Amino acid sequence: MIISMVMVMDRNRLIGSNGKMPWHLPAELKYFKKVTMGKPMIMGRKTYDSIGRPLPGRTSIVVTRNQSWPADGGHNEAQQQYLDNGQLRVASTFDAAVAIAGELLAEKQTGQGGDGESTGEAEVAVIGGADICKLAMPLCKRLYLTVIDAEFEGDTWLTSFERDDWSLASETTVTVDGYSLSYQVLER
Question: What is the pTM of this model?
Fold first, then answer.
């Protein structure tokens, strides 16, 4: 199993503002969907709350210390349905989330489960927030990093990222949504 991370940041490594992304870039959201489709996604509870629901074609594994989440979170009927059909899983630690992702990928390989298109590679995608990235970074073998050539205001940075730890496997730079975006795939 490959643990990868999918992140977007500005040129100062900013990734968030008040629990949300400080930008709205439809092209980047399409890229995110392409990269994560069919893969289990590990995220913190705040990241999940900012999204609001499991995304189609992917299982969301939410890491939270709150043992009764989401049962006491006032979740609506649709969110309970995601829990019931396995599109939403809850883990109390990052290690437990990785174990759940491993189980999901094993089921997919044996044909017992699946949550969308498979790339043929057993890969889990870590998507944030900053605390989960800090825990995941030492284990990640691949980083799908989008760098926005701009500066935004916010309060959360990707401090766990050290450029020297990575080799550039591919890079595509485009200008979309009024910004220059560099889509980088980095490998260890």
Answer: 0.87
Domain of residue 32, CATH code? 3.40.430.10
CA distance 43 to 66: 14
Per residue in 60-109, pLDDT tens?
999 998 877 765 445 556 556 665 566 888 899 999 999 999 999 998 87
Domains identified in the chain, total number: 1
